[in-house]
User: Fold this.
Amino acid sequence: MLLQVKDDSFKTEVLNSELPVLVDFWAQWCMPCRMVAPQVEAVAKEYEGKLKVCKLNVDEAPQTASVYGIMSIPTLMVFKGGQPVDKIIGAVPKEEIERVIKQYI
Assistant:
């Protein structure tokens, strides 16, 4: 399941999550973001119950994007125990996303 998060829900949904969280920092106008979206959705379905997957639109949640130093999108960031533990920048294949997240689940 994919969850949309914003500045006001980020702490509850991501930082306070019992599960590791993959956050997709993206924007509507970003073509590489659209290219990686199907991979992120596939990971969300495949790892449901082991990993929470959230999408954060940087245009709608600039405060959170700024806190985590998001300079390029798409950025996929892994959080565990309320802390960022890894990130992937750019549109990558599903296998690369899985390689990174498997270390944390």
Notes: The two ends are 16 Å apart (CA to CA). The CA atoms of residues 27 and 57 lie 5 Å apart. Helices lie at 7-15, 31-46, 62-67, 94-101.
